[in-house]
Amino acid sequence: MAVLIDSDTKVICQGFTGAQATYHMERAIAYGTKVVGGVVPGKGGRGHLGLPVFDTVAEARAATGATASAVFVPPRNAADAIIESIDAGMELLVCVTERIPVLDMVRVKQRLEGSNTRLIGPNSQGIMIPGRCKIGVMPAHLERPGKVGIASRSASLTSEVIEQISTYRLGQSASIGIGGDPVHGMGFVDCLKLFFEDPDTECVVLLGEIGGSDEEEAAAFLKANPAPKPVVAYVAGLHAPTERRMGHAGTVNVFGQGDAAAKIGALRAAGVTIATSAAEIGLTVRQAARA
User: Fold this and answer.
1) Are strands 145-152 and 133-136 parallel, antiparallel or unpaired?
2) Who contacts 221 (Cβ-Cβ below 8 Å, separation ≥6)?
3) Predicted confidence pLDDT, tens digits, the chain (291 residues)
4) Which helix (H) or strand (E) holds 216?
5) 63-64-69 Cα angle (round to 5)
6) Catalytic, out of 24, 48, 184, 248
7) Residues 6 or more apart from 17 whose CB is under 8 A from it?
8) CA distance 221 to 25
9) Distance in angstroms (rounded) separating the CA atoms of residues 135 and 25
10) What span, in angstroms and rounded, lies between the C-alpha atoms of 23 and 35?
């Protein structure tokens, strides 16, 4: 069983012919991801990377049977591209685009309600099942098949932790970059539910940061639903100055809320093992997995 995607998942790319999409989809194809085409309005009927290009997501889905889309559309049009995929019935969207206006994402969230679509991102590093499928911009050379599920708000920290876990020969069942934007699709609670149900996942890692409320929501969920598997968390930004944005839009304390200390306290109270240093996350996971 794989989380959200597997080697049979058919993937299209919105914004397929752009430079970033071309670079990363070439690597996804080389990795073995079953990319079946792309969408660029006005370029339907052409070919790119040896695959067909369609004008709309509905046309691409009907012709290829795709169930997942990688969204590489520029910020000003990204929300409309996501909504188009939701309306076309795509099951999974991975939005790599960053700097999508917050009000646009509010519109996306409203459209997601009641739909059958799961959205990862925006501002997401993507999702990867080692050896089976990768959608997004995650580097493939660090990952190893294994039993640790990773959900992260930080792209750079994800790569560091994946390397640490691979070094300890634990490997990953799946890595999901939920992104750090304040309004986004899947959150930590969604990922915990998936990993707890996945028989290939024996330990879960949450990589959080300041701002937002995903960590507090995960803590409340775990208090109400005791974890059946070890959960390890690291929250970046313990020494970040209050009300100063750190890195991207989501990483800012607002009115004294969302600071790292409060998030760590909430997670620890919910039974989560806290890694106190980014350099020790892999070791903490190994110890938790063996407990």
Assistant:
1) unpaired
2) 189, 192
3) 589 999 999 999 999 999 999 999 999 999 999 999 999 999 999 999 999 999 999 999 999 999 999 999 999 999 999 999 999 999 999 999 999 999 999 999 999 999 999 999 999 999 999 999 999 999 888 899 999 999 999 888 899 999 999 999 999 999 999 998 889 999 999 999 999 999 999 999 999 988 788 999 999 999 999 999 999 999 987 666 666 655 655 555 555 556 888 899 999 999 999 998 989 999 999 999 876
4) helix 214-224
5) 120
6) 248
7) 38, 40, 43, 48, 53
8) 36
9) 8
10) 13
Q: Are 135 and 121 in contact (CB under 8 A)?
A: no
* CA-wise closest residue to 81 among 228, 72, 190: 72
User: Which residue matches tokens 């000003």?
Assistant: 76
The token duo for 163 is: 């390397």
Sheet strands side by side (includes 203-209): 133-136, 126-129, 172-177, 145-152, 203-209, 231-236, 273-274
Establish whether the linkage from the previous residue to 145 is cis, with ω within 30° of 0. Answer: no
Beta bridge partners of 14: 39, 71
Rg of the chain over all Cα atoms, to the nearest angstrom: 18
Angle at 13 between CA 8 and CA 17, to 5 degrees: 140
Rounded CA-CA distance 16/120 in Å is: 18
> Cα torsion for 27, 31, 34, 36, to the nearest 10°?
20
Query: Does the annotation count 184 as an active-site position?
Result: no
Half-sphere CA count of 118, side-chain side, radius 13 A: 17
The answer to whether the predicted template modeling score (pTM) of the entire model surpasses 0.90 is yes
Burial of 65 (0-12, 13-18, 19+ CB in 10 A): exposed
Amino acid at 102: V
The one-letter amino acid code at 188 reads: F
Give the C-alpha separation, 203 to 232, whole Å. 8
Q: Mention every residue, 6+ apart, whose C-beta is less than 8 A from residue 110.
A: none
